[in-house]
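Sequence design from tokenized structure. All designs in this work follow the same two-part layout: the structure record, then the generated sequence. An example of the structure record is given first.
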């Protein structure tokens, strides 16, 4: 298929053409065999195919289980369905598809005569987390609708979702009920996050009432205490300075605003989202690519991530995944490499670190950890969003959202552009995309060498754009058929764009300078000891000490540079196992994504290492 033909055929967004710089590729086209693939398939086999849990999720709607405590059990179905649908888009596992179709049919049967899918009975509805959970019903079904192969079932889903949303529009928008009257939490932004699926439903159906409802929500989020959109547009405060600082819910609202931008073209929406994402990146993203270093709240994590006095949980997995999704929206929209850099940092460190690959017995055998430690600590200290879903089974918000994170980068590792394709993430495997077939050979992110062989290419001049991450040093090299191509280094990430008439057999060799780096914390002026730390980075990986392999908790000498010697893993279950020379001593370290996986004191882990003297920033 010709490049322009493919791009043009996929740039219609609902009722309006849009001009995203990148478009995710059809899910039949990629088969990878790297670390991202391994995590997604592990989650598929050990969580998404557990049929009993799916039936329990659906049963919450039959029993109105959230009436008693105004809980959020109604979110589990939609969260898991979105992650499972994305996983299926990548793996094409027919066993998973059959299960999802079965559960979709079962879930349709829980819709009541009024058109509601809710874990709240009518007397208790529109309180607590009811609208939040109804949002996830919409999202879960919409994502299954995208993969559903049964035309009759797709139509049943559309009809059911219209009844579901019509009921909400009639009872909230038509009666002019304020969103903060539907919940006692977070100024109503949890309820207002229904903006995203409302716009998606407008795109699907063209019903003006849905666009009207979306604008009603946006008006709520641009005034009063919940004025997060206005604050982002003004761009004077950082997110931790907003009146409401709940990270996950706030980012979900901005995902809805970018969908509204695509549907309407109103430029202020795009500006507000970009401003917000840049502000979060500046003030609240930690070294491992998460946010919220005081429980689940924006709290200036750039400074507080080394707070020696805070002993609570931090860096919620729901925040990690939602940050990734929001950055992915802007990666697709703008085509700017910095968003892929941010997603990559989150994936390899915060997200993969939360996947329970080793010890399933603790805390109910959950697939995902909820909170990630940075200073010396253990994983699995608390299950976020914990609720009973039967007499013997429990679940959590982070457990339900994680699969969306493990699947997302596989769907956007290679994307279509107006000129050809962009390679965003370097995963070993094969991909057919927008007139190209590629074979990719690499050990990335454990090593920086990437070899790409073009095995098929349509005629004519087209472009392959390769992301050069911001960390890549002066030793980075790029050749095409042995001829070196110059890459301009300016300290930021960018795409090296190669335009030519490609032929089968053409070879691209990219060597990313993965040099070991030392990161120093911003710290807190009122707590000087918070500045007496360092962290070690290698390529996109953040390194950690793990009590299984070395002493932990001991101070190290302050330093600004480090050298790394990768080692054979031996008995260590690690992507990268290495000796790091820093501050005149050698430290045994592993990648953070592999650290702490016994979920107890046996693998106490730390990223920020205490130093013996004050750092000079």
């Amino acid at each position: 298929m010709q490049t322009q033909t493919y791009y043009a055929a996929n740039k219609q967004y609902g009722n309006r053409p849009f001009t995203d710089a990148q478009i995710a590729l059809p899910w039949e086209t990629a088969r990878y065999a790297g670390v991202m693939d391994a995590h997604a398939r592990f989650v598929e086999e050990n969580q998404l195919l557990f049929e009993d849990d799916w039936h329990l999720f659906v049963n919450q709607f039959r029993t109105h289980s959230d009436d008693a405590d105004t809980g959020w059990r109604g979110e589990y179905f939609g969260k898991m369905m979105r992650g499972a649908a994305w996983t299926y888009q990548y793996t094409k596992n027919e066993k998973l598809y059959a299960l999802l179709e079965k559960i979709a049919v079962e879930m349709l049967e829980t819709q009541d005569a009024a058109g509601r899918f809710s874990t709240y009975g009518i007397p208790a509805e529109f309180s607590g987390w009811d609208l939040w959970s109804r949002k996830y019903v919409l999202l879960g079904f919409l994502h299954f609708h995208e993969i559903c192969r049964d035309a009759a079932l797709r139509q049943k889903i559309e009809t059911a979702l219209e009844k579901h949303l019509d009921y909400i529009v009639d009872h909230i928008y038509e009666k002019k009920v304020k969103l903060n009257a539907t919940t006692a939490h977070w100024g109503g932004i949890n309820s207002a996050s229904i903006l995203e699926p409302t716009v998606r439903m407008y795109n699907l159906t063209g019903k003006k009432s849905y666009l009207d409802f979306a604008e009603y929500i946006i008006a709520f989020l641009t005034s009063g205490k919940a004025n997060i959109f206005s604050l982002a547009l003004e761009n004077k405060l950082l997110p931790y300075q907003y009146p409401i600082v709940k990270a996950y819910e706030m980012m979900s609202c901005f995902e809805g605003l970018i969908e509204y931008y695509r549907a309407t073209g109103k430029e202020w929406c795009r500006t507000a989202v970009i401003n917000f994402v840049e502000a979060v990146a500046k003030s609240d993203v930690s070294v491992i690519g998460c946010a919220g270093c005081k429980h689940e709240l924006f709290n200036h994590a750039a400074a507080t991530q080394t707070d020696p006095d805070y002993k609570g949980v931090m860096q919620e997995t729901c925040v990690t995944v939602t940050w990734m999704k929001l950055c992915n929206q802007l990666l697709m929209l703008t085509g700017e490499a910095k968003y892929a850099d941010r997603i990559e940092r989150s994936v390899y460190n915060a997200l993969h670190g939360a996947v329970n690959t080793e010890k399933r017995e603790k805390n109910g055998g959950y697939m995902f950890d909820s909170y990630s430690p940075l200073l010396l600590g253990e994983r699995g200290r608390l299950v976020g969003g914990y609720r009973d879903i039967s007499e013997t089974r429990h679940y959590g918000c982070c457990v339900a959202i994680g699969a969306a994170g493990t699947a997302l980068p596989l769907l956007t590792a290679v994307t279509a552009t107006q000129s050809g394709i962009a390679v965003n993430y370097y995963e070993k495997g094969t991909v057919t995309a927008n007139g190209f077939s590629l074979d990719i050979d690499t050990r990335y992110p454990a090593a920086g060498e990437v070899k790409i062989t073009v095995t098929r290419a349509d005629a004519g001049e087209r472009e392959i754009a390769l992301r050069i991450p911001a960390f890549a040093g002066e030793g980075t090299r790029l050749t095409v058929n042995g001829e070196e191509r110059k890459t301009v280094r300016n300290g930021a990430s960018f795409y090296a764009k190669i335009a030519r008439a490609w032929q089968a057999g053409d070879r691209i060799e990219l060597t990313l300078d993965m040099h070991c780096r030392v990161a120093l914390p911003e710290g807190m002026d009122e707590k000087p000891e918070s500045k007496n730390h360092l962290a070690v980075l290698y390529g996109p990986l953040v390194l950690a000490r793990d009590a299984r392999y070395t002493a932990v908790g001991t101070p190290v000498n302050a330093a600004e540079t480090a050298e790394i010697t990768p080692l054979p893993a031996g008995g260590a279950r690690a992507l990268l196992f290495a000796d790091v020379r820093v501050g005149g001593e050698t430290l045994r370290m592993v990648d953070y994504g592999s650290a702490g996986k016994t979920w107890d004191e046996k693998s106490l882990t730390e990223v920020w290492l205490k130093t013996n003297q004050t750092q000079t920033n």
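The domain at 415-511 is CATH 2.60.40 (Immunoglobulin-like). We note this feature because it recurs in several other targets discussed in the main text.
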